[in-house]
Write a structure and sequence with these properties.
The protein is an alpha+beta fold. It has two domains: 55 residues, no CATH class; 59 residues, no CATH class. It has four helices and eight strands, in the order ααβββαββββαβ. Strand 2 and strand 3 form a beta hairpin. The chain is globular, with a radius of gyration of 16 Å.
């Protein structure tokens, strides 16, 4: 991570979540600027460092081969925040995800951040399909 973030890793505070899903990595970054708040994307193992550098605008460590595989890093959209009350513990929480223009909403399984009970609620189709959302205590 320090290599991918470059000098930003030393001078700024970052929270990084890396989750391996099959042969890909799901990456969520929280950085010091609003444009880096909950920036999420998926990429293949061999593009992990390059994808993080692209996402934060860090200079590339080495020139990447043209046409290398991986999911392109998209500009983050508006963050949607869906309030919900857990069906089991009755505690409030919020589900946050990057919304896309004119997307349909679909049911997604979301674990309550208080008790870990699985709740089902509607979120944007893109976030649900990629499981690119998070639950926060309200």
């Amino acid at each position: 991570m320090r290599q991918a973030l470059g000098s930003r890793a030393v001078t700024e505070t970052w929270t990084v979540s890396l989750v391996r899903i099959g042969n890909q990595w799901s990456v969520t970054l929280d950085g010091p600027e609003p444009r880096f708040r909950n920036l999420s994307f998926a990429t293949e193992q061999d593009r992990l460092g390059a994808a993080i550098r692209e996402a934060v605008g860090a200079p590339p460590a080495a020139k990447a081969a043209a046409g290398s595989a991986g999911t392109p890093v998209a500009s983050p959209g508006a963050e949607a925040r869906v309030p919900h009350v857990c069906e089991r513990c009755q505690q409030p929480f919020v589900v946050a995800y990057e919304s896309r223009p004119d997307e349909t909403r679909v049911l997604a399984a979301v674990a309550c951040p208080h008790c870990w009970e699985i709740n089902h609620l509607e979120i944007g189709e893109w976030a649900a399909a990629g499981r690119d959302y998070r639950a926060e205590k309200a």
